[in-house]
């Protein structure tokens, strides 16, 4: 039997990114990095409005980006980072993916946890 909490948790994962960020801000952030090798995480977080969100809200966005719900983002998931904000966005290049991983993977385990993601967004 489903509890109300279980239903609420499931529905939260079905959220759209525009439930928490403005579609115009997302479009502007994606415009700034539409060409390969132009993605700058801090600039993207600022333009999209992510950096203005609370730690809790950023962790909700993290869970939205975490395709397999493992609690971590690996390089394969990071490659599709922009597409989580807009399905028609480009994939990150290999160098952008590695740079994003290096910027956030504080413990060097080859993946980004929710706390690491939140720290990177707010750094």
UniProtKB/TrEMBL annotation:
Keywords (A to Z) from UniProt: Calcium, Metal-binding, Repeat
Pfam families found in the cross-reference section: EF-hand_7
Keyword Ribonucleoprotein attributed: no
PROSITE patterns referenced in this protein's UniProt entry, alphabetically: EF_HAND_1, EF_HAND_2
Boundaries of every EF-hand domain copy: 53-88, 92-123
Highest taxon above the source species: Eukaryota
Function: In muscle, parvalbumin is thought to be involved in relaxation after contraction. It binds two calcium ions.
Protein family (similarity comment): Belongs to the parvalbumin family.
Protein name: Parvalbumin
The organism of origin for this protein: Felis catus (Cat)
Gene name of the record: OCM2
